[in-house]
Amino acid sequence: MDNFAKICLDNGGKITPLIIPKEYNNGLGLMNPSVLNKDGKIIVNLRAVNYTFYHSEKKLFQHPYGPLTYLHPENDIKLRTWNYYLELDDDNEITRVNKIDTSKFPDKELWDFIGLEDARLFEWEGKFYMSGVRRDTDTIGTGRMEICEIEVDKDSVKQISQWRIPNPPPDNSYCEKNWMPVIDRPYHYIKWSNPTEVVKIDLENKTCETVFIDDKSSGINFRGGSQVVPWKEYYIAITHEVDLTKSETGRKDAIYSHRILLWDKNFKLLKYSEEFSIMGGHVEFCTGLAQKGNDFLMTFGFQDNAAYILQFPEKVFAEILCIEDLSSQEISVNADWKTTNHPTMEFTTSIDVKNGCVVDCVFCPQRTLQESYKGERFLSLENFKKSVDKIPKEVRITFAGFTEPWLNPKCTEMVLYAHEKGHQISIFTTGIGMTIKDLDRIKHIPFAGYPNGNFTLHLPDSERKAKHPITNKYVKLIEYFGELRNDINNFQIMAMGPIHDSVSHVFPTAHSPEMWSRAGNLSREMILKPELLNRANEFKSIYHGEEPKTCGCLEKLYHNVVLPNGDVSLCCMDYGLKHIIGNIFEQSYEEVVPKNNSCFNLCKFCENGVKPNE
Predict the structure, then answer these.
(1) pLDDT band for position 597 (50/70/90)?
(2) CA dist., res. 415 & res. 441, Å (int)
(3) Strand 41-49 to strand 344-347: parallel, antiparallel, or no bridges (unpaired)?
(4) Could you tell me the sign of the dihedral formed by the alpha carbons of 265, 266, 267, 273, in that order?
(5) How many of the other CB atoms lie within 10 Å of CB of 264?
(6) Alpha-carbon span 250 to 477, nearest angstrom
(7) At what angle do helices 381-388 and 411-420 cross, to 10 degrees?
(8) Band (29; pLDDT cuts 50, 70, 90)
(9) Is it true that the peptide bond before 451 is cis, omega within 30 degrees of 0?
């Protein structure tokens, strides 16, 4: 799901910004609100901070310090948090604002993050609480959840108690945050969701103990988000995941996504949604969920600069999670491929064993591939659909593989089909074989980003390391790409050297990636392609030795490649096709993909090879 808010609005929902007068926070960031329906009164805790956050969503206008930057007041470079109590009317408009008075519990300010962050609201046994993480009590930023009782008077809101919750023994972790309070179970939090771990706190004796750990793991790094809310005969919550990445210059970046999780009343995980963006941004965070009649209220922050409340009918959750079918479904949360947040299946749409790929990049082991492959030249649209129908929607579909994808005239139809089936899509293409009409048909797709994603256009270089057949028609296509460069989601360009004169007027420069030996395949390719002998110093090689190795990529062993004959190769390094792990035409996806931490000879020669469990 690319825009959960739009789905809600299309189903009769509404979204309202949460904005307080600027004299409260000097117009700086408002973020990560939490919502509670307290006996029919809608209450929100709104987090305010002393900075402005900047994030370059498409990395088009990066700050010198990277795409993700905090802009501080000159006289205070701490990251400070204050919390505001809000009351809303039936239209979700603010009717009351109070800064929560914490003067009885002054901040210690021993570290850079100061104050109670991302506090969730809840009521247990008639007392009103907020609970979030605090990291300013020592000099290294140790994070622990705090629970604070709040007293609401006619003209003020005060914090009247504070307890820093220890982790269940042994209490030796560095940072505990985003525990999700269970609204109707006093003193219970879902501390972790992979597997589900429920803890119970004792306010009188100041203890915390684990009371439930599920024996099944989803393999996905679900992190906390909203409160855990009773709904029908289930519990439901919004969780988040985050990819902490780096930009091309090595600067910090991050991409957040969310899911809906559903448990039974014994905290057994029943189902979870696919990843989604709330409003299409990369930095979003949900910290609140409540029911209001037959609607849900969901509160979230956008880029640490804006706060919203989204109201939508409960049928949105029911349809996304297929609640009607839940009793008849066997829920599987143990698949090995779910040990990564980024499972990917690449498709090689054609392999011409006689002529090879027409682009014939010097660093691409095409001769090795031609010698190794047996089977149909083109992947048929029928077989592509048959394959995609077997692949779980959580698995990204990438059009790249071992050859230019648009050498298959049905490639555009394949892209559209995979998108319509609900998969994230990424593309690596030279544009050869593509037409302006093809680009018009797919430009609306919200192409996936990091890792190994994006819509990447490989441009011709002046040294002809990549031998694009450059025609007037091709130049017109590149010019059209130039017109759309800011409209195609996650669009980027690359080349193997300075841009060829024919298209440099559109894209004067492009990123040139570091070249590696394709897990040793270029050494064999040198015998078949003498041109490589003159460029042996332009790519790197590695050999890890005879010790077993597995994949250290973020996708782990689950970035596999479908060939036109249905065979599935281990990964995009296997040009010699020595690691065929199954056939997607004849087997299920789960039968094809390898067990987590399996070791392969190819990994010994790959820069991403690691020891199992490393």
Answers:
(1) confident
(2) 10
(3) unpaired
(4) negative
(5) 12
(6) 32
(7) 20
(8) confident
(9) yes
